[in-house]
């Protein structure tokens, strides 16, 4: 090979490898089964007659890339007593057919293109929707941006889903009158707060200086959240998690019921922040998550399956 050709080839390869990495769109199959189960809703283990996706509150995190085609299958477990449905806020679909409920033992499918990047609520929309959400039928779908450089790379990621606890989920009148007893993160009262509940055994962990990304969903069904890290400042906030919506240096950001946003937090020092809904009746009844910053933070937390601390 002559010298000129060698140089041209080398320059061509350099351009090729320096070009932005844009991930390829894929077809992603997602299956979720609705399950009616008893679940603990506090650190003492008090159980609640929950309705769920896959037996968990929140349901599994669904994660796809912008541009992917999602082939979704909903299974309504045959041991259930109620109809259930799926409403993905990341989808553009037909509410009458795609989001329609199915009976116990039935299965349905619909397909959508994940066109907008971000963090989106998903929930059951079967009638009465307020009851299906209050009982726990919700979760998060993350649509990662096509361009991986669209947002700064996080060192850890956590998911927090806020919801209200209604003592008797059969009492629809009390629900309409907004008579909730507690507000929870990830389906537990003070689940991540050993300060207010000595039975709490879990909290979030990170190292000082790390960029911690919190995917926050407000499942409601009724209350607005004023999402704030006590003793910290949100470095960045992206409403709906879309990189085009970037905000900087925010103390709080309001996330309404049925909405989601992405929050980045960086602590310059060791210690703790308390992530709360600063609507204080919500915080003081359970919506507090402690994040501990220390150099010996568990390296597994905030990665893989542990972006939801179960
Ligand atoms: Cu349902």
Q: Can you tell me about this structure?
A:
Helices cover 10% and strands 39% of the residues. The protein has 310 residues and is mainly beta. The model has no long low-confidence stretch (mean pLDDT 94). The protein contains four helices and 19 strands. The strands form four sheets. A six-stranded mixed sheet has the order 10-9-12-17-14-15. A five-stranded mixed sheet has the order 11-19-18-13-16. A four-stranded mixed sheet has the order 2-1-4-6, with no helix packed on it. The radius of gyration is 21 Å and the shape is globular. The protein folds into two domains: 27-144, Cupredoxins -  blue copper proteins (Immunoglobulin-like); 156-307, Immunoglobulin-like. Copper (II) ion binds next to loops.
Terminal Cα span = 59 Å
Q: Which small molecules are bound?
A: copper (II) ion
The fourth-level CATH homologous superfamily of the largest domain is Cupredoxins -  blue copper proteins
- Rounded average pLDDT: 94
Please give the domain count. Answer: 2
């Amino acid at each position: 090979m002559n010298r000129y050709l060698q140089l041209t080839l080398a320059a061509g390869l350099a351009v090729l490898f320096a070009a932005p990495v844009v991930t390829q769109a894929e077809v992603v199959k997602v299956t979720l089964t609705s399950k009616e189960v008893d679940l603990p809703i506090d650190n003492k283990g008090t159980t609640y007659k929950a309705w769920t996706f896959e037996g968990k509150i929140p349901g599994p995190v669904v994660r796809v890339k912008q541009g992917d085609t999602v082939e979704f299958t909903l299974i309504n477990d045959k041991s259930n007593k109620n109809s259930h449905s799926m409403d993905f806020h990341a989808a553009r679909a037909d509410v009458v057919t795609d989001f329609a409920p199915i009976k116990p033992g039935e299965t349905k499918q619909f397909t959508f293109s994940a066109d907008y990047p971000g963090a989106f609520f998903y929930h059951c929309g079967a009638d009465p929707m307020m009851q299906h959400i209050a009982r726990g039928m919700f979760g998060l779908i993350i649509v990662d941006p096509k361009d991986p450089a669209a947002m700064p790379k996080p060192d850890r990621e956590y998911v927090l889903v806020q919801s209200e606890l209604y003592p008797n989920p059969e009492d629809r009148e009390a629900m309409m009158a907004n008579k909730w007893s507690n507000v929870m993160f990830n389906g537990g009262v003070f689940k991540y707060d050993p300060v207010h509940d000595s039975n709490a055994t879990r909290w979030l962990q990170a190292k000082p200086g790390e960029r911690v990304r919190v995917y926050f969903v407000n499942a409601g069904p009724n209350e607005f959240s004023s999402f704030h890290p006590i003793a910290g400042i949100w470095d960045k906030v992206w409403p709906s998690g879309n990189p085009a919506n970037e905000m900087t240096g925010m103390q709080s950001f309001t996330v309404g019921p049925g909405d989601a946003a992405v929050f980045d937090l960086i602590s310059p020092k060791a210690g703790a922040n308390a992530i709360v809904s600063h609507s204080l009746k919500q915080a003081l009844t359970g919506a507090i998550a402690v994040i501990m910053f220390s150099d010996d933070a568990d390296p597994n937390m905030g990665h893989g399956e542990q972006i939801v601390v179960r």
